[in-house]
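Changelog note: in this version the structure field was regenerated for every chain. One regenerated record is shown below for reference.
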Amino acid sequence: MCTKMCISSHEQSRRHKIKLRFTGHPRIRRDEVTGDWRRLQNEELNDLYSSPNIVRVIKSRRMRWGGHVARMGEERGVYRVLVGKPERKRPLGRPRRRWVDNIRMDLQEVRCGYVEWIGLVQDTDRWRTLVSGVMNLRVP
């Protein structure tokens, strides 16, 4: 015998949802115009919590890593993986995208155009500016 009132799991779930609605659940807000409750979109949550866009984070870290490896020198194995082409016969179809291709595309988004980026990496201050520029881009 229950000493408290026995509540079904469905009723508990319903009460929990109502409680979250009125206590400020982070994904549910009252619309200022209509007064209705609605879920927040991902862009609104990102603006609310000011979390960076994951695409921008990946691009900037890829460029940071590329700069680090490009400054290592040509004799290192990692450098050969970054800029080298495979020595074997490639399979049919579209060529695979290499790290160098991704970094060049990221540089074009910063409007740096096609430059010899490996030479640009040697100037660390300018390279850091470009990497932070990729981080601050607005990507759809």
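Spot check on this record: Residues 54-70 form the longest helix (17 residues). The longest strand covers residues 28-30.
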